[in-house]
Amino acid sequence: MKQTLTDANFPRTADHRVYHLGLRPGEVTNRIITVGSPSRASGIATHLDAEPKPFVLSSERGFTTITGRFRGVPVSIVSIGMGYPNMDFFVREVRECISGDMYIVRLGSCGALVEVPVGSVVLPSSSVAINRNYDFDFVDPERSSEPAYRISKPAFADAHLHEEVRKAIEAVKPVDSKSHIVAGTTNASADSFYSSQGRQTSFPDRNADLIARLKELDLNISTLEMETFHLYHLAHCWGAGHSEPPSPTIPLARGPVRPVVSQPPVEGDATLERPLAARDTTIKAAAVHLVYASRTSQDFITPSEVTALEDWAGLAVLTALSNIEIPYDVSRSMFYSVASSHPECWDFFNYL
Ligand code: R1P
Ligand code: URA
């Protein structure tokens, strides 16, 4: 940690940088692709417009943000690492850097429970969480009456974003690609790559029946990975009413209460009456899962297959996000608001 942070509740630097992602308003946009690995992020970023040169920030905690434009539309690619906690850092900290609606698409790898070849693409419209039950006695299972793993109720993708991404994936898929495309299924996000995904290791994980339990749920559970449930869950919770942003607040963009307008408000406009509050905004989430591991055939994807798959799937998600209309250009208004008090932010004008 190099900079002084204030406020134990929601730590930030004096120039409004959030603790773990290192971002401040103006450096991240409302349309975001989130991925697990920095190499996937930089591969997708090759599709961004050459001008303005994309902004790149790698935080001390391993989060990398690339912000630029795709066909003129501002977009960010954020690499977050693995697991629910990292998804949590990402959604909460970026949310406080942005004013207005957020559109987030997770582009991540997965294991497939359905019979599709590795290199296929699955778009889950819902997701359940699988958590290791720490109250279960893993050493002496006979002493437990509860299950070793808990499976939650589903959380859901935004239906419109899911459909836009599905159409883009179908449209961008190369004609010679052998990938299958499956949409509208349920994902299971686990708190381990190993035990809670039913893999067998040298630990006494008591998970031999886990995959069978998932199939019995009759939810069409097709993929296993580690972040999508938490993304869908937080997006849903944000839509259910909010408290005010954590203090000290960033200077929020002033914007109209719904119905929104497509132009930034002008000085003296009656719509400038109050800041664009959290309660006026939404988080829309969807996911695209790239099948790296087949849990039926035990095949695993090759590096060259990964490169090709990430390239076209990344292009598809950028295309879908750039086609989404965000009625009020909140990235821009947020930027104007921040830059007026922080002139150094003007450098980032080109992205927004
Ligand atoms: C495990 O190998 C990681 O891969 C999957 C899982 O969700 C987990 O993060 O996603 P990413 O490829 O996006 O990291
Ligand atoms: N990521 C996961 O979490 N599981 C897999 O099987 C493959 C990728």
From TrEMBL:
InterPro entries: Nucleoside_phosphorylase_d, Nucleoside_phosphorylase_sf. Pfam families: PNP_UDP_1. SUPFAM superfamilies: Purine and uridine phosphorylases. GO terms for cellular component: cytosol. Transmembrane segments: none annotated. Residues 31-239 form the Nucleoside phosphorylase domain. GO terms for biological process: uridine catabolic process. GO terms for molecular function: uridine phosphorylase activity. It comes from Ephemerocybe angulata. This is Uridine phosphorylase.
